[in-house]
């Protein structure tokens, strides 16, 4: 989910996979190159890096279905927090009030 100043992802990775930095570096690099090909001008920082993405990331291994659902809810909450919608139901595919959500089918 790409928001105004950050993004959220939920991944299913191979058992034992721990090299999150390599994956994030590739995502940030490829998306930055895609932006540059559109002709958008990006500023560079003191290290010469484009300032499109923050340097850090936060990762969390989901423990169970309940933990997964709470993280999906957290991602949805940011749509409202960032002012992209007033209510989650305003977002295409947003959860309908009182509806059962099968996160595994939607994400």
How would you describe the overall organization of this protein?
The chain is an all-alpha fold. The chain contains three helices and no strands.
Radius of gyration: 16 Å
Poorly predicted runs of 5 or more residues: 96-107
Number of helices: 3
Distance between the termini: 11 Å
Structural class, from secondary structure content? mainly alpha
Largest sheet: none
Oligomer designation: single chain
The proportion of residues forming helix, as a percent range, comes to 25-40%
Strand % is under 5%
Please trace the helix and strand order, writing H or E for each element: HHH
The total domain count is 2
* Secondary structure tally: strands: 0
Average pLDDT metric: 81
Shape estimate: flat
Topology:
Blueprint lengths: L19 H18 L27 H17 L21 H4 L1
Summarize this structure as a short list of keywords or feature phrases:
single chain; about 110 residues; flat
What would you say about this model in short?
This protein is mostly helical.
